[in-house]
Structure formats: structure tokens, C-alpha cells
Amino acid sequence: MAAGVYEARRNFTAAAGDLAPGLRLDEVDDYVSVSLESAVESIGLSRTDFFSGSKPSLHDVMRRAVAHWHPGLRYLVANVLPSSIVPKTNRVVRPVAAWRLSNVTVLGDAIHAMPPMLGDGANSALRDAGSLATALIDAAAGRVGLIEAIEGYEDEMRTRTYPLLKSAGI
Q: Could you write out the DSSP letters of every residue in 109-127?
């Protein structure tokens, strides 16, 4: 089971001088996200039934999946509001060997989509963006060629993110 807890600390409104002044994000209530997708098949339910089931039947699946788990986790799942259940799946991208270099590259989920349990997906994408921007600045300044800059970025990105994918069991 993967669980994510969100507690709103403050509302966000971008201030003057920010990149998007006046931007206001919708308020979100506190919530706990519970994911039991990986347990679906172990309790004899097909993925098709999982994604087409009614909310009460999915709540029953959740309770059965944790029936022998710690009482605290059983309590958490038992108190999920069936109306809040949304079946979804998490997709991942398996690491691939280096590809033929060109002036086209990838970053973020296009090359290393990660499951949410480690909390590294968005952070990795932001690091990719920073690393790629630095590489392109170096190329534009003539410190390295464009292809060499992209190669450096891709090598660094694989070195940084592929171990995270391995830690997530991918």
C-alpha cells in the first residue's frame, strides 16, 4: 500500500514580481491518498474489474486487501469515504540504454516516469530542466558543442535518475 498525506498549510497566491503575478491555486482540502493497485490481483480481482467496479465494491476490495495488515492501516482503509474512491493506475518508464545522440532530447516523465512512492518524480523533472538549461547555456556560449552539451545532460540525467527507478523496484 502506498499512502500520501496532504495537509494544506496556506493558500498560494503569486506575489507581484513573481513569474505569474496574481496566480491563485484552488484551495484543496486535507486528504490521504491510498493506493492498493498492486494488491488487486493478489486478492483474485482482474484489473478490468478493478477499473470498472462501483465505488462501494472498490472499497470492499480495499478492505479485503488489507484484512491481515496492521490495525492502524485497516482502520485507515475502513474509513475511506466510498464516494471519494477514484480507481487509477500509475505508469512507469523502464530505464533504457543510451540512444543515438542528436539535437533532440527528453526530460521528466518522457524518460523516467516514476511511481509516487519515493516522491522523486517532480523533483527529478525539475533537476532535468535545470541541468538541460545549464547545458544549453554552455552550448550557446560556445564552451561546448550542442551535441556534446546534450550528451553531458543525458549522461548526468541517467546517472541521477536510473538509481531512483531501481529503488522503486523498476
A: HHHH---GGGS-HHHHHHH
| Summary mean pLDDT of the chain | 81
Identify any residues that bridge with 34 across adjacent strands, giving them in sequence order.
3
Helices (H), the chain: 47-52, 55-65, 71-78, 109-112, 121-140, 146-167
Q: Which residues contact 26 (CB under 8 A, 6 or more apart)?
A: none
Three-state SS at 4: strand
Q: Is the pLDDT of residue 101 over 70?
A: yes
pTM exceeds cut of 0.70: no
Q: Are 36 and 61 in contact (CB under 8 A)?
A: yes
Q: What's the grid cell of residue 158?
A: 541517467
Burial of 143 (0-12, 13-18, 19+ CB in 10 A): exposed
Q: Which three cell numbers stand for residue 28?
A: 484543496
Question: Minimal CA–CA distance to 167: which of 109, 126, 120?
Answer: 120
Q: Pick the most confident of 56-60, 64-68, 93-97, 146-150.
A: 146-150
